[in-house]
Amino acid sequence: MNFLKNLICGACIGIAEAIPGVSGGTVAVLLKIYDDLIGSISKLKQQFKKSILYLIPIVLGMGLGLFGFSHVITYLLEHFPMAVNFFFVGLIIGLVPMLLRRSLDGGFRVSVFWPFVLMLGIMAALAFLPGDAGESAGLVTEMDLPTGIRFFFCGIIAAVCMILPGISGSMMMVIFGVYDSVITAVSTLNIPVLIPVGLGAAIGILFGAKLVDYFLRRFPQATYFAILGLVLGSLFSLFQKAAFAFPTPEGFAALVTLAVGVVISLFFTKESKEEKAQLKA
């Protein structure tokens, strides 16, 4: 019975992670498995058998949920790119209040604001650089060494963010311009593309979370301001990618999906009592 329950919970987390802006960590908190999930990961060496038996159905469920829902996302990206990208924009805008709450927790100091300026500037520069190496240059279906390294590090970042309640791992992939390629690779089982992402995700879950936890505990405001800069900076490339046209039927649909994205993101990032407890732990 526990195996089936954890399988279903894992599937819910997997579906959430396929949607940029919806945090798998938040879903785990809502399903009341976050403590056990993080505990099993952090104590993998000390309690290997117990942790593995707990993690297997969750990881399996995540894979099934992600694979199943990836077909839906891939279809929508192919046939309704403007509406889907504006939906992502709405999800990003809806993240801002939560990130501001965490960035300003304890008051505002100029010294912790510079990471925001730096990350925002980097993302803006990447968006407007000529000859963009991101997904505007086309869907990545074959892997070379430089692209593999980029996907590897994106996998690390996405996995780390997936663990944190309120932060979406797939949104980080949108921000770094690999989401379309990765979700298409999942739906088509393109193994060469998935290997570097999967290796990065495994390292991010096992080791990267500890590094982020260190920064969040030692420099929480600066860390969240840096994340806020990354998130807002990603809007530049998303607007370019969406190729917004108005007034057109597609443009009206895009504005509707933007509003829907904002509402969904605000709903999933509002602070619950459980999440507050996780952040203080």
TrEMBL record:
InterPro entries: VCA0040-like (IPR007163). The chain crosses the membrane at residues 52-76, 82-100, 112-129, 149-179, 191-209, 221-239, 251-269. PANTHER family: INTEGRAL MEMBRANE PROTEIN (PTHR37308), POLYPRENYL-PHOSPHATE TRANSPORTER (PTHR37308:SF1). This is DUF368 domain-containing protein. It comes from the Bacteria. Keywords: Membrane, Transmembrane, Transmembrane helix.
